[in-house]
Design goal:
Elements (H helix, E strand, L loop, with lengths): L15 H8 L3 H8 L7 H13 L6 H5 L7 E5 L11 H16 L4 E5 L4 H13 L5 E4 L7 H9 L3 E4 L10 E5 L1 H14 L5 E6 L4 H16 L9 E4 L3 H13 L7 E4 L2 H14 L5 E6 L12 E4 L2 H16 L6 E4 L2 E3 L10
Helix pairs in contact: 1-2, 2-3, 5-12, 8-9, 10-11
Length: 349
């Protein structure tokens, strides 16, 4: 008997989260038990089914549509790279917290993987699809031309991206920050304060995020009739060292140095601030994304933009479920909130 057919919503029926709490097991285990997953023992399946009938459990539409899944899991793939970008893990953890909560409520487990190189990541993706180790993937660190997207599209495998790409646009769902508005706002603020040469520390190596920010910087400096001199752009990474190197480079420009600097990441701003303290070459700094609380502890706090972590996590979870249900793809852009000075809450004594 299909267990879903005996549940009729007649009042305050339990949801899967409440049922799991009553049973003292995970939401994923409840979902697997109700779907005859081979990894769940017969004893646990019978216990869960009995409780489902007793408490009038009524699975939601998303849960019913996911019955064909096999692993009941999704994997968030962090950007590949060396130790320089391992610091970004905490940023993704904050986003993953809400995403995991929402996916667990639908019986989907969330896992996180990190690789040293793109080749290692591609090998793992191929293996995961071949062995049916996961039901959907979430790509991060997207590139202008992204081989992973090509591979997954050709494999007809469910996936979404955290970040945009020029690869097969509109054929998959994505969540991203509204970098265009961030750059427009930051350049506007700089110009209103009288700055003439707005420098940019962005990302190279075919990074889509880096390209979006650079293109927006070009548009906005032109809009405000400010210099778009290529010398005002430093192509780096998301790391403190990259920010330090960028400031050293800008310092070397002498009179042609920027008088205001926009960093794509607060980690870059931290390195830039350190160089400023050591060298005396000080410029107003802005972080397009505050991904950590570190800037709150700098002697001169940069301005920047805070991430709505819960909103992003919910958006990712929603698109993962939609990808599993084979719904039409869509793009979600999340706005960031301006913060004139990152503050901390540490109390003295």
């Amino acid at each position: 008997v299909n267990i879903y057919s005996v549940f009729i919503h007649t009042g305050n029926a339990m949801n899967i989260t409440e049922l799991a709490k009553v049973l003292g097991i995970s939401i994923a285990t409840v979902s697997r038990a109700l779907n005859d997953h081979p990894e769940v023992s017969a004893k646990t399946r019978e216990r869960v089914r009995a409780a489902a009938i007793k408490y009038d459990y009524n699975p939601n539409a998303a849960g019913r549509s996911l019955r064909s899944g096999k692993s009941y899991s999704t994997v968030l793939l962090l950007p590949p790279g060396d130790a320089d970008n391992f610091y970004t893990a905490s940023f993704f953890m904050r986003i993953a917290a809400q995403m995991q909560y929402d996916l667990n409520a639908n019986g989907i487990d969330t896992f996180i993987h990190l690789f040293s190189t793109q080749e290692e990541e591609l090998d793992w993706i191929n293996n995961a699809i071949t062995r049916q180790k996961v039901d959907a993937l979430i790509l991060t660190g997207t590139q202008v031309n992204d081989r992973r997207i090509n591979f997954l599209q050709n494999s007809n495998f469910p996936f979404i991206t955290f970040g945009r790409s020029h690869t097969h646009q509109k054929n998959y769902s994505s969540v991203d920050f509204n970098f265009e508005d961030v750059v427009a706002d930051s350049v506007y603020r700089a110009c209103k304060k009288g700055h003439q040469r707005v420098g940019l520390v962005t990302l190279g190596n075919d990074s889509m995020q880096g390209k979006i920010v650079y293109d927006a910087w070009q548009r906005e400096t032109a809009r405000w009739k400010r210099s778009a001199d290529p010398a005002l752009v430093f192509w780096g990474k998301i790391s403190e060292k990259s920010g330090f190197d960028a400031m050293h480079y800008f310092h070397s420009l002498g009179d042609d140095a920027p008088d205001y600097i926009l960093c794509i990441s607060d980690l870059q701003a931290v390195g830039a601030s350190f160089y400023a303290s050591a060298s005396g070459f000080r410029r107003p700094l802005c972080a397009a994304v505050f991904s950590t609380d570190i800037p709150a502890f700098l002697d001169t706090r940069p301005e920047g933009y805070d991430v709505p972590y819960k909103q992003v996590g919910k958006a990712l979870a929603s698109l993962v479920l939609e990808s599993l249900e084979k719904q039409a793809s869509r793009e979600i852009l999340c706005d960031l909130n301006f913060n004139s000075s990152k503050m901390h809450s540490v109390k003295n004594g």
